[in-house]
Here is the input.
Amino acid sequence: MRQYFGRKLLIYALTFFAAVTINWMIPRFMPGDPIQGLVARAQVADPASVDAMNAHYRNLFGLDVPVWEQYMNFWGALLRGDLGLSIWAFPTPVSDLIVRAIPYTLALLIPAILLSWWAGNRFGAFAARRKWLDNTILPVGYILTATPYMWLALLLAWSLAIVAGIFPVSHAYSFSLTPSWSPEFLGSLLAHWVLPFASLFLVMFGGWAIGMRNLIIYELEADYSNYLLALGARGKLVRDYAFRNAVLPQITGLALQLGTIVAGALVTEIVFSYPGIGYLILQAINSQDFFLLQGVFLFIVLGVLIANFIIDAVYTLVDPRTRVRLQGAGA
Amino acid sequence: MSQADQISLPAESGGAAPGQPAAPAPVAARRGGDTLYFALRNKKLVGGLIVVLALLVLGVVGPLVHTNSPTEYLGTPGQSPGGEWLMGTTMFGQDVLAQFLHGLRSTFLVGALGGGLAAIVGMAVGFVAGYRGGLVDEVLNMLTNILLVIPTLAVLIIIAAYLKVRGVMVEALFIGFTSWPWAARAVRSQTLTLASRDFVDLARLSGVPTWKIITRDIAPNMSSYLFMTFILLFGGAVLAAATLDFIGLGPTDGMSLGLMLNNAVRWSALQLGLWWWFVPPGLGITAVVGALYVMNVGLDEVFNPRLREM
Amino acid sequence: MRNRSRLMILLAAATMVAAGCTGGGGTTPPQSAPPSGAASAPAAAANGQFPRNETLYTSGTQYGPPANWNPIREWDFATGTKGLCYETLFLYDTQKGEFTPWLAESGSWTGDKEYTLKLRQGVTWSDGKPLVADDVVYTFELGKMETIPYHPLWEFLEKVEAVDPATVKFTFKEANYQQFANHLYSRAIVPKHVWDGRSEKEVLDGLNEKPVGTGPYAYHSHDQDRMVWVKRDGWWATKALNLDVKPKYIVDIVNGSNEVALGLLLQNGLDLSNNFLPGIANLVNGNFGIKTYYSKPPYMLSANTAWLVPNTTRKPMDDPEFRKALAHSIDLKTIVEKVYGNLVLPASPTGLLPQWDKFVDKSVVSSQGFTYDEAKAKKLLADAGYRDRDGDGLVENKDGSKIELELAVPNGWTDWMESIRVISASAKKAGINVEPVFPEYPKLVSDRSSGDFDLMINNERQLSNTPWLYYDYLFRLPVQKQQNTVNFGRYENERAWELTQDLDRTKVEDVEGMAKITSELQKIHLDEMPVIPLWYNGLWSQTTSTAWKNWPSAEGSAPKNPPTLWRNWIELGGIYTLTNLQPAQG
Here is the structure.
């Protein structure tokens, strides 16, 4: 057990190290100078003022020391949770912006992932080898899973929000409210959440349903299923066994899909101007705020690593084979 | 080492939705004619193939027949479809049909290049790691695992954001070089099972060089699996490119379906009701990727007789 | 299995609610006043905590989240920091060309190099303290710090003294009337009793979280995507000038993207949008309740000039004849009509905004002006010795080498990107090889500062009290190693710069004297074409009248002020837009 998780942790640690290093390197090898952009926005003509401002910001962002020292400082700052100052929202710290955006992203992602995974698996398992259902679920599932997240979001925004006017088009809550625990505020929050959630949920749902349907068919064709049936076991029992076996690869599939799912959440937020991490990315790109962009990147990597680790743990707990094997290895 | 792999092996060969091909069945013994017979009978395969080919022809031949420039201002802005402009015009009076055809072309280009590149890298890494084993495997596997966890799109965003000029080719290149890890992992585990087969042992004993064993004995025996992997990588590359384009990190010159979506949103096509500007590009992407996926299921059924509908 | 799945739903629902609440609650303190009104589902249309009939919703000024309320940071303070909260000594009316005393009661030149300012009596800060001469002195003396944007003022200003609590005396090394007039209505006066003792870093980078100003509004709350101001009692102008601002709340919505603003506008969730909204002409002409300043093209007032800047240190842009040919090769009509849908006006050959018409010498323009004329461009090229030697339809340099010019605008500035594609196409037709390029903004900025570009488009000088600012932009000398705000093309003409300085030293009231100098400058400009004027960007402004009426408009007796809350425009008359507003109902 310890060996298994130890190895996993090592991989995650190395991944994080690689991500941080890539993150640090990219801007330093690319053209353009973020500081210059910052100073230019101030529209100062006087050369002395320009030099003074340049020096001021170079110092503020830690760009006035040797490269290796910058790298060490980068790590030092990172471990203190300091991701630098945002240019887009100067002088707000990047970490502040991210912390404020996280709840919105998680509020979309976690329910969408869990619910779509659960519902998709249920539906897929139910549809497998049931001719009529299979013929309807399967095409719908394929269409959904092949749909780019942003396009479905656009269609929903256009049809349900702009044309029908049922849901709000953008942002997280009404502009006539300030945050509080009042029912109106919570209601507004919910109304603004529905469409982005729905677009994420639907695309993912299609994927899980198809995956499950295919797995169930494999399982039903497996020797043990035929054997059970030949012994006179009821179809329902066999299906239950098949489902349990098929859930395991679906858990691994979740881990593998995390990156894509996060990407989907990002573009969905962009479509709905939902103030989460994806919206930050768009703003960072538009305003060339590389400090923010990199902070967000690191945060996403970290989030995906943590999620992966959780999925690993769940997998080990759920799968009887690994449980046995792990116990064996520990002994 | 081997422990972790045994844990993940049965898992990955499962069909976890669009990212993963279903478990391949060994097809070594089947005669070609037999496969073709079932392939032509398979509605999913044939249907998917027809859609993909039709769109491919549109993308390749379309711009040659319909020669309007996708970027020039040709007509009255914001025309709805029909009449002179079959698919309407954009806010600037650009021809949506021309944009769509050129967009399809670059979609296939990105898919083929990005997916192809990812398949080549993934296969090379997977074969070598699976066949050679030992330290090579250890290192390659570690690399694969690391890249597998890093969210590809986030890396792509960072890289693309810093590039001054971006073309379809460069985009495909980056997508290819970042989306291979899961393919490598899948190919590796397949190779592992094949590498212990008798005919491979025999070849090795008779002194055949490694690359020859891989290309002559191992790869052909999992060719169906490799092809399906390529198809999925193709679809993945198309979606990744569309996402990048939509965020505004797409090609700085040229046209793509994702860029059309990006432009439509930026220029308020939703609010102004210019649905013909944002519906077709999304539909195009969905059709290409969806048809590929359906094709893949069809292929799976062809190669794996147990899955055929009874 | 069934139990587990039920648990999952619960879990999912719980995370959502919790996340949503902390998301909101973490950013702004919850309000003590209980919200009233019904549920707020469809956008901002419903009544919430800010009653619709007391709230003005605006957008289009703020591109990042409100991050500071520091009036020194004129480029990124939260919308309204200057204008709604902090105020200036004068206002400048761009339509009439007049200065209106604001915090000042009067001001005049009392000597060759001496300006005396009388402060208005009865102006109080929002903390109750009176405005005194020391506050003005303190504000201007902040400019002695090198990193403060108005530091250049101290190149010609010698000292500022408080003669008595209501009188300030400025003594100059050199009387640059035009420039100083600009400072008089541009500098936000800050309270010395609050700011005293702040370090240079605090003054430049401080958030100034609890702004204490003299203006009609005070800070209420903010979030990532909005800034809320609340009306405060006791604004001096109510008593002194009989002006009152009607909206109790101003909610300024951060400009994530323009299409979102358009969506809100169509749902009556926005009263004033200062966004650039392509295609707005269709909506103004249709029955959507959206109004602009003019009901016909160009729909908007003009705000600044977009210029094509050639790098005059490079071949062949160092040749005035080539620059003139280039000017004649630009198909401006397509840009105005197709790219902008007639939302902008083609610029006068002098580049001076319509508001400065009195400074344009018509005879110079008619004899030396230029328009799009492919044949003329070709002739100019041929006469100057640029010929197509290899038959590719594009001319070569005089020495036979190829001409390959790059025209740059920042990536993502979509209307400009479209525009330079048009320019590239029409220039190629005339035989000039111009390729559009889209570097990222910081890259473009560093290239233009160091002079590492061929051609680019720039519009950084806004409408103001004086065309001097434009000629300063065109001709300022000496050319430095880094050219950060003016003369990006590095054009050197001693005579033009002397004339520009003469203009600066001409009294503001002396319109005739100014016009005489600008006429000379226009001759040089059109003769040498160091920078090519293209079009006038609009003062983008769209309004709806469901909650508020009496918006500025060219029609009838409607107010004639700029309908905008753009930064640095409230003191150009934007404040009158607010005082003229009336509730649409009751």
Q: What stands out?
A: The radius of gyration of chain A is 25 Å. DSSP finds 13 helices and no strands in chain A. The longest helix of chain A spans residues 183-221.
